[in-house]
Amino acid sequence: MKAAVAVLLFLSLFRLSFSLYRKHFFVNTFKTWEAARTYCREYHDDLSTVNKEEAQLLSANPGVTYTYFWIGLHISPNNPGQWIWSGDEDEEIDNWDIDEPNTYTEKCVVVKKSNSKLHNAMCSKTRPFYCMQVFEPILVHQNKTWDEALDHCRQHYTDLASLRSQMIMAEAINNTITSQTAYVWTGLRFMAGHWYWVSGHNLQYKAWSVEGELQCPARDLRCGALDRKTFIWRPNNCEDKLNFLCLKKL
Ligand SMILES: *[C@@H]1O[C@H](CO)[C@@H](O)[C@H](O)[C@H]1NC(C)=O
Ligand SMILES: *[C@@H]1O[C@H](CO)[C@@H](O)[C@H](O)[C@H]1NC(C)=O
């Protein structure tokens, strides 16, 4: 659907013992909660599961111009009184607005844009909504140059992994335990004067060695690898053949 606006927000969470990436897409079309869920399940994974931090990021999207938007939270059909995520995640629900949830006839949940808090609402109301796509990092046990690794990830999964937060780093490090090479490729690349993630994100969280980010790496050291022993990023020769971390759709 053309009206869908992709919002590129990658976030991580811990779900029991492992973490996942969620990418959220704002759908600027008014639908009932059920119709929104059907849409999300067809075009993505599900209606969005959001923690407090994500609720803030999704609300801050300037493309959201309405007071409320649907997320994947609703009353359990089997256990009225229990709020559950459509995607079945056990993400904590600690973000209700004051005096919410407030009536048991309102069985679905919106986020109020102005304060990023949860409100329960009639499921038959029509609201714009967020869908999510869920990913997990996966280590590929093949030795490839950075360019080959990028091609492989894009062909078989979605992309080389961006290690954009401490939580994602922790998960990535966990995934490199079985690596056959001391370093593994990430989606980090130096071009036109700066380092960036191939996914298009800027570097905010950084895990360079103590010498810090190389402002002008040598011509042959312009691809970023993760050192699986010291857990830091290093500028590496792009032609080295290493194992690599892809992002896989769940
Ligand atoms: C890493 O893996 C171990 C066992 O597979 C698990 O217990 C631990 O919680 C994982 N840590 C992260 C950050 O995913
Ligand atoms: C990749 O390289 C490592 C280190 O050089 C080697 O031990 C491993 O067997 C290689 N893996 C494959 C699949 O060729």
Automatic annotation (TrEMBL):
Gene3D superfamilies reported for this sequence: Mannose-Binding Protein A, subunit A
Domain C-type lectin: 24-132, 130-247
Keywords per UniProt: Signal
Span of the signal peptide: 1-19
Keyword Manganese: no
PROSITE patterns: C_TYPE_LECTIN_2
InterPro entries membership: C-type_lectin-like (IPR001304), C-type_lectin-like/link_sf (IPR016186), CTDL_fold (IPR016187)
Annotated PANTHER family: C-TYPE LECTIN DOMAIN FAMILY 20 MEMBER A-RELATED (PTHR45784), C-TYPE MANNOSE RECEPTOR 2-RELATED (PTHR45784:SF8)
Protein's UniProt name: C-type lectin domain-containing protein
Annotated source species: Phoxinus phoxinus
